[in-house]
Structures
1.
Amino acid sequence: MPASRWIVLPIFLLGLALGAAAVIWAPGLLDPYLPPALAGKTRAVTGEVVRKQREPDRLLFTLQSDQGAILVTMTEKVAEIDLLVAEGDTLTLALRGHEPFVTNPRLERVQKPRPAPGTPAPAGSSAPAAPTPSASPDAPSGAPASAPAPGRPGT
């Protein structure tokens, strides 16, 4: 029986070492594959994109939040995120805490800046166009609604 004790001790120590290593490295490796409920505690960090740079295999942008600047590096879905995010947009990221450098964080929300009243919407936006004056039924085609019909005095 004394020999079996010496077999159990290395197995116990190996299990202890593997458990400690899993606690340290597993959360970072497994978070992308776990559902949000099991991924660990994250908090939403919101900020404005102040600079964006596209490289062949990654997208970099600087996010200015209330706690400071964050350099975000995206290496997955680079083309899609490049089309979605522009300078001036407000992003909400799911982060574990305030980290100055993050890689492939989960994008919670992207908000485009709202144009000031009276400024035209940028080309390609889904904003409705400004209403144009319509012609009155009495006016000939092509005449604006504010012009009186021919032969009638303006009222």
Note: Strands lie at 43-55, 58-65, 68-74, 90-95, 101-103, 106-111.
2.
Amino acid sequence: MGLVLDPGPLRPGPFLWTLPYTLLGVLLALLSGTRPRYHRGLFIALSDWGFAHLFLTRRGFVAMTLGRVILTTRPLTMATWVHELVHVQQYERWGPLFLPLYLWWHVRRGYQENPFERAAAAVAARLCQEAPDRAAAQIWPPAL
């Protein structure tokens, strides 16, 4: 999988294929007291309290993707953005099967050895190696 910095245009097929999880992501953001913001073809919800924040921070995570929604506990760096974009592409490829497959691998092998996580981590690591200054740069929320 190549180094992807932009989710590309919103296409009807993949959008509909990811829609159930996108709606779940929006609902989870709203239940966490945050409103998802549209950014470069995706919705991003910065949660500093509520269920999403608690769920992520208790597990030591910064962000989580559901369909085309990225839930995050802090501003996104380019490295995290790229990692989460890989998950968006995985949702587009696997659709409703993605989350059950992800969880199956997670139970079988754990987070670090989950093939979906390994793929996302590899792309983010490549960015860090090729452009370390860009990898750490904050890209969302945009500077005012």
Note: The chain has one domain: 12-139.
